[in-house]
Description:
Elements: E1 22-26, E2 52-56, E3 62-70, E4 73-75, E5 79-88, E6 94-104, E7 108-109, E8 113-119, E9 123-133, E10 137-150, E11 159-160, E12 167-172, E13 177-184, E14 197-203
Parallel strand pairs: 3-11, 4-12
Antiparallel strand pairs: 1-2, 3-5, 5-9, 6-8, 6-10, 7-9, 10-12, 13-14
Amino acid sequence: RTITRDGGTASFGFVVTASSAGRAELATATFTATNASDGQPAGISANLATRVGVTVQNRPVLRRVSLSATPAETSIGKPVTARITLRNDGGATIRVTQVRPVLSGTSLDAPPLSTDVQLPGAQSVVVFVPMTARGQGTTSITSAVVSAADLNSGRPVFISTPAAAFFSVNVLTSPQLELLAITPARTAVSVGQGFKVTVTFRNTGQDA
């Protein structure tokens, strides 16, 4: 490539691979150049480039630390919140964009949660995922599917072992009230006289 005279410029792009964690300083460049008119070697008369530092971080390591949910017991139709704790045991920051609890059972509905969380190295984050109790029974949160990427490279990051223990949620049937009796304390009273009336209900559902 020819760099024209009287202030001409040219830029050259290179692919540099980070080989280990640390900090690299870019201060100068080694090159071979010749004078276009006579072929004689041409060197640098002045280095005006600003020194630039590049920090090389270890790859991120994503771990699922714990799984839980609140409440642990509920009834059909009520909300349940999954609590998923993630930790980055690596160096580079992880960008988490979606989290979905993995369920064993049919009593909970857990759609994926879209998010945008940045998780730096050696730190943890708790992601809260809304769920709904949709049927009677016990459902366990056994795992979580996480969509994540290395914030530096954009490469996908997957959960590394060990995995967190599962957590179970018990879904009860909703309260079912039956009116059993209305019983007055007296069957005959005078005008202006107060009397007690007892109303009796029975709950045939599992939840109170």
